Amino acid sequence: MHRLPVRRLPLVAGYDGYAPARLLAKRGRNRQLLRTALAAAPNDAYVWYQLGKDHAAHDKHEQAARAVAQADALHDPGVPWRTDLATHHLYALKQTGQHAEALAQADRYLPHCQDSSDFFFALGDALLDGAAENPTAVGDLLPLAQTAWMRCLQIGERADQHGSVAGRGSFLAAHNLAVVHEGLGQAAAAQALRQQFPMPSAPPAVA
Questions:
Q1: Where are the domains of the chain?
Q2: How far apart are alpha carbons 14 and 5 in whole angstroms?
Q3: 137-173 pLDDT, tens per residue?
Q4: Coil, strand, or helix at residue 116?
Q5: DSSP characters for 45-86?
Q6: Does the pLDDT value for residue 202 go beyond 80?
Q7: What is the pTM of this model?
Q8: What's the rounded Cα separation, in Å, for the pair 92 and 102?
C-alpha cells in the first residue's frame, strides 16, 4: 500500500511460478495459509476468491467452483476483482460440466462485466462446451459463443483490470473464432482473423 506516483513502463516481466515443477513444489502451501485465514475470518470474500483460484491452479475444479461461489455470495459488488471472480466462476463451472449453471451465472454477471474481455472469453468457452455436450443446441449456442469472442475483440486488451489475461482481447479470442470458421468451412474468414490478430512469437529463452 502506497501513495507514490504510478506509471506504465515498456517492460515485460516473466513469472514461472505456475510451471508444473514450481506448482508441485509449493502444492498445498498457499491453500493452508488461506484456510488458516478463513478460520479466523470465515466471511472474508477475498480469501474465498483466492482459495478458488488456488484450487483452479491445481486443477481441483469442483473445489474451485464451491470456493468461488462462496466468494460470490459474500463479496461487496464494488470490489475491483469482481470481473475476475465472475470469469473464474464460469471457468470452474465449465470444467466441472455444469454448463447450464455457467450460463445462468453468466446472465447474472453480465450487467457488471460489459467491459471485460476475460469474462466474454470464458463465456464463449462455456457456450462452446455446452454445444459439444448437447448437439441439438449447437444451432443456438455456437453463434452465441462466436458473439462472445467477437465481443472480446471489440473490447480489446484490458491489462488495467484485475486478473486480466493477455490475448483474451485479441489473439486468443481470434484463434477460437478462426477454429469455428474453419469448422464451418469458412477458410477465408479464419485466415483474415489470424492475419489481423497474429499469435505472438515466443520470447527468447533465458538461461
A1: 29-75, 86-199
A2: 23
A3: 999 999 999 999 999 999 999 999 989 999 999 999 9
A4: coil
A5: HHHHHHHHHHHHHTT-HHHHHHHHHHHHHHS-TT-TTHHHHH
A6: no
A7: 0.85
A8: 9
